[in-house]
């Protein structure tokens, strides 16, 4: 009963009257209404793991397993990093617990030619795109060495300034279009808080004016640090922000990996076919603190967390896989052991790293050599030498 | 007299001014219920309510732009940028509008707002959380830039900034937030914007610095004085702009030697302006080149390397000794 | 047949489902649509001057005459300023020809307690708020002296940086609310181009989150210098941008002074009553060059101008007044003479101004005295003296 | 050889580079059909089509932010800010991203873009159309700031900027756009970013300036040399950052006297950095304080007063004479 073929419901962008290209149009006489605006909603897997077969995507067991493994890995990495942080072995970092389906579903929908432009709470997605765990540990322990890895040619590094990455995504997407790379599109993640930034709006507008092949995935996790979603913006949904740009707007259950996959897949297909951008709101929840520096008990209603625990994306996906006969307790146990080992290996590799040239930041100030930079590098190294001899 | 750290002292100043003048309001990201990510506004939300301590949407330009409007309409907004590293998002509003309404309306509409922002490195934070952007703000005519260095002067200067009729960029050295406590007098001492403070008189050399660099500088001076006799005058700039050129000139005219310590990248920073001021006013008194101890002209590295890149007591000490020995 | 009382059509903001205040909501199961989004349109006076009595506002003859006189004055000032500019007697300035109804209708709807926050193409509105013509001449001849005038306590000066003023408007509006000035609201003008700026989006979002008493009037004059409306943004209307913020969005015929008046009046009443902000798109046309420095023949289709000439807001309003018996050829002739005289007087006053202290810009750097500023003032005056003695 | 003005020379450089390398694209407000408000991009839209000469929506941050993305994806965007007075709206993207991607990815993603912007006063323009913001850009590590002064060096430097692997802020002195013509060689001469040019050798005094200030400076030097014998070396900075300290130092070591001419407000401007550089490298050669001839620390006044506020030949001449006579 796989009907992914017929799933095109979110793509249309109804026009009650055509755009007026030479500005001849003026409003009709009297008072009238234009009601031709809409968004769509999608949930495929409910919180009990029941699938709505009508909208079930046509995914192989391998793909479904890959998706589940990624979500499990992400959660385990988060868990381990939290411990490392508490032990002072890495610095501040943002957990993505609860948001695995919103990050991994879209990543599964991407091909190697698509670009992944993230913010900082898409751990599972980054891992699926090949980012080594060791890199994340390096990054969150304050080393630029954590940023690059061989092969990550179409994934931008973590973007800290809220909303800024949305413009980079649109630029990349437009470049793909200009260069005729019709098999490439961009997936861009952002938070609910990011929708308040001017850059987000400019990105949405440029994307729609250029009909750039980009899919925005807004992880509405209900919070921007301590600010709840309803103080962030007054609109009932975030998806409806797409209407301002005549862009398809879709609200999906962000804890349903099938919904995030399907909506992204459809949007990517449309984007690659020249159909322009899509905005997807993935309704999810930040189940842990904002970052390890945050204390949510200051602002978070406990009952809210309780409700969302029941909507955890992992158990429901496991139940779905189990019901399909793809998953079992043994496989779960195996995966657990394997995941643990993988993380241990990464932590070991990370903690044995010593190849941090102190002057590395001078290497990449410019792509050309400038005397002033080299003078400062020499001065810097001289200072380090003097300090260690002083000590 | 109360012993408090800088976070508490800033909180006190906000509380005092909000209590004194109901035109004073605070706004920013997470400053309300959460009390700010550094807890600087802790308790104010409960005390003054959400109309006066406003959790805003996540938009720096929006925060400053609406603060400008509120100031024009008679309020005294104290806006917080969560980190100075995000503050360039509001530079258009600051330079284009906050700095200009007074001139643009021949004094009819003014913009008495304060924009507070933690700045600088040393707290093992993520990218964009450790910058020192004061030179950029100081280059804007019509904007005042103030950087305290201790709990007491933070409290006094913030009160002065809130009462000031002009837009004030108030940059808080976040690595000093909880680094130490000091006695903070019951009544505010009357710090004046535009005045540097001679923290310690001396005859042989002038050290000029501000904000977070005061602590390593004090340490460097202490170390030097443990092993040699040299009389060092220390100036805490406190106001970056408009700069107190007279205090600088008087000191350097006396000592003939000067070291400037700046956390920001070297080039085009405040140290250069200080050197230019010395050049303008007292060049012929100089017995040695002024030395700059500064950050390097690289992006602030991630925290794994930040300590190597920020000026430390050792570098400052050597610069002072080299200048004395020049 | 005055039914302005019943005119509340634009104000509702339908909610298909209520805002979810503790983030418990997730999308409904399966695929569904939310169609509860709409904007409204309003035209009261068509391009032939025919009034739609159902929506005709209840305005006195005095008010109607005032509105017409303001539009006529604005056009005459524009006309005269263009000539002065061509003669080198003032500098670059932006004409508002064709947009008089979009500027003056809203100004008529305002009270003295409302704030007028403009961009730079609301000449008629500024004149109605009491701005002396002499000031405009001074301003456009490069003198800050043109900015202030006694009494203009609730009108901000011209704002050049596109979109920036929208945030000031929201700040003022929120201050009115916080101060309990329930009889004050803000009218904020912006252009179609301004809707592309991040600041505009942030202003819309803050306004709606704060439910601030502000009415945005977007003068969609089809152009941002050479960039046509449809390259500025991909949405069919600008009014629908309000939907992103669950704000009432209204598209009015911007060349119909009754529609711009009525829509603004309703929105202001709602704002003052605590009903929050409104976004009004006034569809109009820039009938002249962008500024006197611009040459529209490089980009403007001639036929477009022809179409819009027929929609000129002035003749249609005169026809309406004439049909109502309020206006006549004699009154028109009188007004013409009076307007001409008024402008002549202003030009004379302006050209006889000599009281420009050269060092005035030092007066308003700060509100407190600083030595550095005074040193520079002295140096400046010294330099001027030396230069005149050298000459 | 062709005689052309600066607008034509910049247009030529764009045309040459777009013709040579199809990764080069231009984008900005009104740069397409309209050819730019100063006609700098005139004809390019017709020649290269709307995919390579893009009329963007009215959003400076959007223009720069999407340019960053395009550069990362392999294009070479040349973005225009219609006036530098609006360019602070994109400072967050410039400092936060354009300047950092190279370091942030250890060289994997780079941002070879140029952001062109007319700057400075003297064309009787409205508010925000006459600013000089180069110091702000120059204080950002990872960004290069270039300011040409003549048609030839504008063409040569723009070509170098487009080929440069890093983000370059290219500030065009708009009052020189059509002020004069000069021969522009058939083949580009190979200007190098980071190198100042000694325009005229001399032994008694060094004058350092850039951009629009070159013309009044040349006039001042000419006037002086009509009535007295003094040998003046003139340095055209061309690159503001990274600054060519060696050329400055070598000259001042020789002459011992220096005047810096800067259009921007005085404090925290490039002149201060030049003075600091002289202090660092050759202070002991100075026989007189370096003089700054600069704008004042006020918002750029409306055009009715701009001529009084901008440095002119007379002020420059007096500063030179005073420094020679010191
Ligand atoms: C421009 C900017 N302002 C402020 C911050 C500080 N900050 C970091 S994360 C965050 C909240 C982001 O909320 P949201 O977009 O919903 O993402 P989430 O953290 O929920 O994933 C804030 C305010 C920042 N990084 N960038
Ligand atoms: C931030 C900014 N960018 C660019 C400009 C230059 N500029 C002045 S007016 C204008 C077009 C404005 O279009 P619109 O908002 O539609 O207003 P209109 O001129 O049509 O009244 C532009 C690009 C500016 N003033 N401010
Ligand atoms: Mg969030
Ligand atoms: Mg327009």
Question: What would your notes on this structure say?
Answer:
The complex is a heterotetramer, with two copies of chain A (391 residues) and two copies of chain B (326 residues). Chain A is an alpha/beta fold. Helices cover 42% and strands 12% of the residues of chain A. Chain A has helices at 61-86, 100-109, 123-128, 133-140, 164-178, 198-210, 229-232, 257-272, 302-309, 313-323, 329-351, 360-363, 371-390; strands at residues 30-43, 115-117, 186-191, 214-220, 223-224, 227-228, 249-253, 278-283. In chain A, the strands form two sheets. Chain A has a six-stranded parallel β-sheet with strand order 1-7-8-4-3-2, sandwiched between helices. In chain A, helix 1 (61-86) packs antiparallel against helix 10 and helix 2 packs parallel to helix 8. Chain A starts with 29 loop residues before the first strand and ends with a helix. Chain B is of the alpha/beta class and 326 residues long. Helix content of chain B is 37%, strand content 20%. Chain B has helices spanning 6-20, 44-48, 60-72, 91-98, 101-104, 134-138, 151-163, 214-227, 245-255, 270-282, 303-309, 313-325; strands spanning 2-4, 24-28, 53-55, 76-80, 114-119, 144-146, 168-173, 182-184, 197-200, 205-209, 232-236, 239-241, 258-265, 291-295. In chain B, the strands form three sheets. Chain B has a seven-stranded mixed β-sheet with strand order 3-2-4-5-7-6-12, with helices on both faces. In chain B, strands 9-11-10-13-14 form a five-stranded mixed β-sheet, sandwiched between helices. A two-stranded antiparallel sheet of chain B has the order 1-8. In chain B, strand 6 (144-146), helix 7 and strand 7 (168-173) form a beta-alpha-beta unit. In chain B, helix 3 packs parallel to helix 4 (91-98). The radius of gyration of chain B is 19 Å and the shape is globular. At the A-C interface, strand 1, helix 6, helix 7, strand 7 and helix 9 of A face strand 1, helix 6, helix 7, strand 7 and helix 9 of C.
């Amino acid at each position: 009963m796989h009907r992914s073929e017929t799933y095109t419901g979110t793509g249309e962008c109804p026009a009650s009257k055509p755009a007026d290209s030479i500005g001849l149009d003026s409003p009709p006489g009297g008072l009238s209404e234009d009601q031709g605006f809409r968004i769509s909603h999608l949930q495929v897997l409910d919180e009990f793991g029941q699938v709505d077969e009508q909208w079930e995507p046509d995914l192989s067991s391998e793909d479904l397993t890959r998706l589940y493994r990624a979500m499990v890995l992400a959660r385990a990495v988060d868990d381990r990093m939290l411990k490392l942080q508490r032990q002072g072995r890495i610095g501040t970092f943002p957990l993505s617990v609860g948001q695995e389906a919103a990050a991994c579903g879209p990543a599964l929908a991407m091909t190697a030619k698509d670009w992944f432009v993230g913010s900082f709470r898409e751990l599972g997605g980054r891992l699926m795109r090949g980012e080594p765990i060791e890199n994340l540990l390096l990054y969150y322990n304050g080393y630029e060495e954590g940023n690059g890895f061989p092969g990550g040619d179409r994934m931008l590094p973590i973007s800290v300034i809220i909303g800024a990455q949305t413009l980079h995504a649109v630029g990349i997407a437009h470049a793909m279009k200009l260069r005729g790379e019709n098999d490439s599109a961009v997936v861009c993640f952002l938070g609910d808080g990011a929708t308040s930034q001017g850059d987000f709006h400019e990105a949405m507008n440029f994307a729609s004016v250029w009909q750039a092949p980009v899919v925005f995935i807004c992880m509405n996790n209900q919070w921007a640090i301590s600010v709840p979603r309803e103080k962030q913006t007054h609109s009932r949904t975030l998806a409806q922000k797409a209407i301002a740009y005549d862009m398809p707007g879709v609200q999906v259950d962000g804890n349903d990996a099938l919904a995030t996959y399907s909506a992204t897949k459809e949007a990517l297909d449309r984007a690659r076919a020249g159909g322009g951008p899509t905005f997807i709101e993935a309704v999810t929840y930040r189940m842990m603190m904002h970052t390890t520096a945050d204390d949510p008990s200051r602002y978070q209603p406990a009952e809210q967390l309780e409700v969302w625990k029941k909507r955890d994306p992992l158990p429901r996906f496991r139940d779905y896989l189990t019901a399909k006969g793809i998953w079992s307790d043994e496989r779960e146990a195996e995966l657990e052991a394997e995941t643990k080992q993988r993380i241990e290996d990464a932590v070991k590799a990370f903690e044995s790293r010593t190849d941090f040239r102190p002057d590395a930041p001078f290497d990449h100030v410019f792509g050309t050599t400038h005397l002033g930079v080299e003078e400062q590098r020499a001065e810097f190294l001289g200072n380090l030498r003097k300090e260690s001899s002083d000590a | 007299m109360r012993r408090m750290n800088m976070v508490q002292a800033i909180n006190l100043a906000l509380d005092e001014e909000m209590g004194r003048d109901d035109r004073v309001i605070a706004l920013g990201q997470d400053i309300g219920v959460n009390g700010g990510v550094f807890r600087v506004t802790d308790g104010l939300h409960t005390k003054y309510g959400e109309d006066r301590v406003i959790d805003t949407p996540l938009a720096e330009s929006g925060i400053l732009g609406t603060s400008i409007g509120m100031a024009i309409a008679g309020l005294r907004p104290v806006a917080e940028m969560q980190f100075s590293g995000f503050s360039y998002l509001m530079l258009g509003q600051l330079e284009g509008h906050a700095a200009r309404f007074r001139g643009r309306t021949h004094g009819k509409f003014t913009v008495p707002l304060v924009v507070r922002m933690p700045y600088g490195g040393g707290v093992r934070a993520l990218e964009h959380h450790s910058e020192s952007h004061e030179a950029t703000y100081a280059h804007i005519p019509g904007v005042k830039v103030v950087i305290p260095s201790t709990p007491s002067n933070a409290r006094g200067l913030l009160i002065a900034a809130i009462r000031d009729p002009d837009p004030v960029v108030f940059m808080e050295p976040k690595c000093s937030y909880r680094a130490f406590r000091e006695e903070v007098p019951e009544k505010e001492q009357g710090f004046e914007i535009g005045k540097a403070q001679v923290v310690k008189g001396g005859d042989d050399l002038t050290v000029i610095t501000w904000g977070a660099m005061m602590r390593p500088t004090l340490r460097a001076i202490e170390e030097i004085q443990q092993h040699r006799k040299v009389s060092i005058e220390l100036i805490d700039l406190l106001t970056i702009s408009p700069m107190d050129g007279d205090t600088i000139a008087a000191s350097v005219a006396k000592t003939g030697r000067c070291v400037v310590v700046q956390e920001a990248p070297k080039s085009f920073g405040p140290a250069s302006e200080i050197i230019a001021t010395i050049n303008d006013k007292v060049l012929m008194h100089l017995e040695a080149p002024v030395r700059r101890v500064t950050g390097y002209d690289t992006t602030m590295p991630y925290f794994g390397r930040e300590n190597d890149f920020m000026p430390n007591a050792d570098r400052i000490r050597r610069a002072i000794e080299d200048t004395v020995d020049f």
